[in-house]
Amino acid sequence: MLDNSAQYLGMITDKFYGALSADPSTRPTGGVIQAGDRYFNTTTQTERTYTGSAWTYSNSSLNLALGGAYVTLTGTVAKTALLTVPVAANLMGLNGRIEITLDFEFSNNTNQKEMSVQFGGVDIIGPWNTTNGSSWGSWLTYVISNRNSVSSQATSFKGNESAIGASYYDSDTKAVNTAVSQNIVVYGQLANAADHIYLRNYRITLFR
User: 8-17 pLDDT, tens per residue?
Assistant: First the structure.
C-alpha cells in the first residue's frame, strides 16, 4: 500500500498555513497563494483569509480583553486609567464593531463617582457619573461601529444603575482612524479620595 500521508499533509498545509507573524507572499510549500487560503496571525491573534487579491480578517468574533479580578481606584481624586486595551491597525476593517461591557462597584454615598471610556484618545460617549446614595454599582455597555470606513464610527452607550433600577442611553459619532493602532482606555475618577471604584469584571469583544 502506498503511503500518501505526506501528499495529504501538503494539501492541508497549502490551504491552512498555521501560525505566522505576518501576511505570507507564498504558500508554505512555495506555491502561489489561492483564494480561500488561511492562516493564524500571531501578531493580532486573529485568523486571516486570502480573497484572491489581498489578505483580510476572517469574519469572526474576538475577545480583546476579558477579566474578573478587581481593579481598584481609591486614595486619589485624579482621573485614573483602570484598563488599557490595544486595538491593532486595521483590525476593525470597514464595518467591524467593538462591544465593551463593564461591571463597576463604588462607595454607597452621595459623593460623585465618574467612569468613562476613550477610544483613540476621545470619549466614546461623555463621562458617566453618579451621586446617588442608594446606588452601589453600575453595568455599562459601550459600542463602537465602523460605518463602511476605517475612520468613521457610530457609538452608543447603555448604563444600568443598581438598587434604583435606572437605565441610561446615549449615542454619538466619532472619527477615529482605525487604520493605525489605537487604545481603548477605561477611566475612573473620585470626588473624595476616601471613596472607591472597583472595576469588578469586563469584556471587550470585536465582531467582524
Answer: 445 556 788 8
Q: Are 155 and 144 in contact (CB under 8 A)?
A: yes
Nearest to 130 by CA among 146, 118, 113, 143: 113
- Protein fold of 61-207: Jelly Rolls (2.60.120)
Instruction: Answer whether 124's CB lies under 8 Å from 98's CB.
Output: no
Q: Is residue 116 within 8 Å of 123, Cβ to Cβ? A: yes
What values do phi and psi take at 124, rounded to 5?
-60, -45
Domain coordinates of the chain in residue numbers?
Answer: 5-57, 61-207
Tell me how many degrees the CA angle 44-49-54 measures, rounded to the nearest 5: 95
Over the stretch 95-111, which tens digit does the pLDDT of each residue have? 899 999 999 999 989 99
Instruction: Find out whether 162 and 117 touch, Cβ atoms under 8 Å.
Output: no
Asked if 195 and 115 count as a contact pair (C-beta separation under 8 A), the reply is no
Closest CA to 85 of 50, 51, 124, 48: 124
Give the whole-angstrom CA distance, residue 1 versus residue 6.
Answer: 14
